[in-house]
Amino acid sequence: MRAERWRLAATGLLAGVAVAALVALAAVPPGSSGAPAGTGAGQPDLRIVGRSLTAVGERYDLARDRVSCALCHARLSADPFRLTSYGRDYREILFRENPGARSIFDVSFAEIRAAVAATSRTGLDADGDGYDNDLELRFGSDPGDPASHPTVPARVLEGYRRILVADERSGLLEKLRLAGAGHRPDCPDSDGDGVVDCLETLFGFDPNSAASVPAARGGRLALYRVALARAGVAAAR
Amino acid sequence: MGEVGSIDIGSFARDLHPMVVHFPVALMLTGLACEALAAVRRHAGLSRMALLLLGLGFGAALVAVATGLTSPEVRAVQHTLAVTPPTEPGTRALFLQRLARIRIHQRLAYSVLATGALALGVRLWRTRGVLWATASVVSGLALAAAVVATGFAGGRLAR
Predict the structure, then answer these.
(1) Which site among B78, B104, B110, B125 would you substitute to test the A interface, given the most A Cβ atoms closer than 10 Å to its Cβ?
(2) Which residue from A22, A99, A127, B146 puts its CA 20 to 30 A from A199's CA?
(3) B1, B8, B73 ranked by CB distance to A69: nearest
(4) Is the separation of the CB atoms in A140 and A205 below 8 Å?
(5) Which A-chain residues 31-50 have CB contacts (< 8 A) with chain B?
(6) Which H helix or E strand runs over A162?
(7) Is the model's pTM score more than 0.80?
């Protein structure tokens, strides 16, 4: 009798779940018709809807409020497939290495990371401004805009990069980070753009213009500054 | 899209769903395999084990559906569509395609719950006889198909 009651209760529960599931199934909007037409609120989660941008952001430790879709899309509001030179290079590499992909959603995040790495290989300069993509992203300028590059000469930044890459490989950069080298240096931020003057000057940005701000996080640049100072770079002291 | 941030937003639900979904797939398919083995060998213990696995798998499926529904992905894709004007058909097409795939996965997940409830219900009441045996086989196959299809569609989304 008790087992019978238990069985009836379980059946009732299962029937309830089945009915709810069938109602929910019928309520799922067919395909894409559930797309809203108005302006939404809040920010989309870039880890989902902008995996390419996320991969670049992760690779170069870019500040989330200083990097946007404009990195690859020249005029997203008018034509999403009108790409910047960097966007074109990235797209070409991504689909060349994944020939079966019809859209970005057919490509895994690992493949996106690999394409971002390939687009950032040393020497590839999408906008032809003399600063290669890796150099621009590493220090925070736009690799798809020839007007956007640090004022420090490219050969100087290339020297910095050699030191930093060697430090990355030896693990020194990570040791410095753990020792607190990524903290904000004790110098003013004249233009209030969130990156202090000594870092902006060192990496070729205008410390008196909020419009001239590196996309790389201040903490990353502070870490670079300490590593460069240790390597004897006078400008970093 | 303008200036967009949130590069490293952590989402518990988003990270939890891909972990949880493995349980219903493993438990339900193992349960059905145990049941088939129990029927062949006429092993009562194995049959009870199969029912237990199916029950646990059904519970895990409920949790998986709940975590899937709270995942921020649908909201994120819908938001992107909302802020992407009709003058950008290419971008809209990309995200509409993504949304359509999510909807397919969602429908299949609900079908797992429906077929799972049916399969368990049949197994709770079944007695000896051709009718109940047929009902068991049909509901079991339907459940296996729904689980496999849902897992496949989810796997495509996770790529």
Answers:
(1) B110
(2) A127
(3) B1
(4) yes
(5) 31-32, 34-50
(6) helix A154-170
(7) no
Tell me what the pLDDT averaged over chain B comes to: 83
Query: Chain B residues with CB inside 8 Å of A31's CB?
Result: 96, 99-100, 103
A50-87 pLDDT per residue, tens: 778 888 888 888 887 788 888 888 876 566 677 899 99
- Are B124 and A34 a contacting pair at CB < 8 A? no
Strands (E), A53-204: 73-75, 79-83
The CB density around residue B112, as the number of other CB atoms within 10 Å, is 28
Nearest to B96 among A14, A32, A68 (CB): A32
Per residue in A181-209, pLDDT tens? 888 888 999 999 889 999 999 999 999 99
Q: Measured between alpha carbons, how far is residue A33 from residues A44, A208, B93, B109 in Å?
A: 19, 49, 12, 19
Residue B7 has its nearest CB partner, among A10, A32, A64, at A64
B12-20 and B22-41 helices, crossing angle to 10°: 20
Q: What is the pLDDT of residue A151?
A: 93
Is residue A178 classed exposed, middle or buried when 0-12, 13-18 and 19+ CB atoms within 10 A define those classes? exposed
CB-nearest partner of B94 from A31, A45, A104 = A104
Q: Which residue type does B155 have?
A: G
In this structure, what DSSP letter does residue A29 have? P
Q: Which amino acid is at A198?
A: C
Return the ∠ at Cα B157 (arms to A25 and A97), rounded to 5°: 155
Look at residue A41 and tell me whether its pLDDT is greater than 60.
no
Does B126 reach chain A within 8 Å, measured CB to CB?
no
Rounded average pLDDT over A129-151 = 93
Nearest alpha-carbon partner for A214 in A191, A195, A229: A195
**Looking at the predicted structure, is the pLDDT value of residue B8 above 50?**
no
- Percentage of chain B beyond pLDDT 70 is 81
Q: Which residue has the tokens 């050699």?
A: A162
Longest dimension (CA), chain B: 66
Is the CB of A46 less than 8 angstroms away from the CB of B6? yes
What gap in Å lies between CA A193 and CA A207, rounded to an integer? 9
Q: Using CA atoms, how far apart are residues B142 and B111, in angstroms rounded to an integer?
A: 9
ipTM (interface pTM): 0.77
